Every structure is written in structure tokens, then in C-alpha cells.
Amino acid sequence: MRYGTLAGVIVAAAVAVEEEPAHLIGIVKRTVKIENATLVLSLHLTHSLAREVGSSVYLFGYRSDRPFAQMPKLHIQLGALGHKVYDQRREIPWGQIGITREGRHIDIRVPLEMMGNPQRILTAAKTYAGEIPLDWAAWRVLDVRNVMAATP
């Protein structure tokens, strides 16, 4: 990274952006659906994840008959080469979660049972370079009851 000054102000960030545009990875589209009692979340990014750039997906289950604090709160961290899955900050084995990648497209499959068979799912996603946020897909609520009722 090069540093320069403009009117006495360091402009390293502007130089870094020009030299490394691949770090500007954003979320083009996020879709969420239920298939065979499995949540399927798809992300389409502007570029494939890079060495320094990651993505996080948040999936929080909600049921009216259980305290929210007791419901699973999944955080899936995606890097260029791998991923980690957390439930309320505790790393868990990711074998139950299916993740497929094809270039700029990522599919995440989570069995509803793993999420406590929620009535609703709160979901959000973001991309980041280290501690610097690049893009954010806002929180959305999926009413699983309505989706399951509509499924033949």
C-alpha cells in the first residue's frame, strides 16, 4: 500500500481502493426459501470472496413458545477458502450445514430442526475486509409457518 498526501491529509485509502478494486465486494442479491424442511439462503456477490474479504450470514430462529435467548442464533463466517459456523458465539461443527459455491454465488442450506424448528427466521448478511464493512443486506423476517403452509 502506498501513502500520499493531498493538502496535508494522508490519502492511503484512496490509493488502496484504486490498486485493489476486488476488495469492494458487495451483495447483489439475497434470496431465502424453504425446501424440504431446510432453509436455503442464496447470496450473489459482485465478485468472488478474496483472501482479505469475507462474508457473514446471520440466521436467528424465533418461536413464541420458547424464550428467544434459548433459540439457536447461527453466524456463518465465509472466507475465500473455508467457513466457520457459530451458535451464540460457540463454534459448532458445520457438517449439518451445506454450503456450495460457484464463483460469485453461494448457497447455504440449514435444516430447520438445527434452528429449533422456528416459526420465524431473522436473517441478515454482510461483506467486510478485516474490520471494514463493505456491504450489508438488512435484517429480514421470514415467517416459516406461512411458507410451510403454502408448500404442497
Report on the architecture of this protein.
The protein is mostly beta strands and 152 residues long. It has a single domain, classed as Sandwich (Immunoglobulin-like), CATH 2.60.40.10. The chain has helices spanning 12-19, 144-150; strands spanning 5-6, 9-10, 27-35, 38-45, 53-62, 73-78, 83-87, 90-92, 98-102, 105-111, 120-129, 132-143. The strands form three sheets. A six-stranded antiparallel sheet has the order 8-7-6-5-11-12. The chain is globular and about 40 Å long. The model is unreliable at 1-22 (pLDDT under 50).
Tell me the CATH architecture. Answer: Sandwich
Helix segment tally: 2
Record the strand order, biggest sheet.
Answer: 8-7-6-5-11-12
Shape: globular
**What is the CATH C-level name?**
Mainly Beta
The tally of beta strands, per DSSP, is: 12
The CATH topology is given as Immunoglobulin-like
Give me the Rg, rounded.
Answer: 18 Å
Structural class: mainly beta
| H/E element order | EEHEEEEEEEEEEH
CATH superfamily: Immunoglobulins
| Approximate helicity band | under 10%
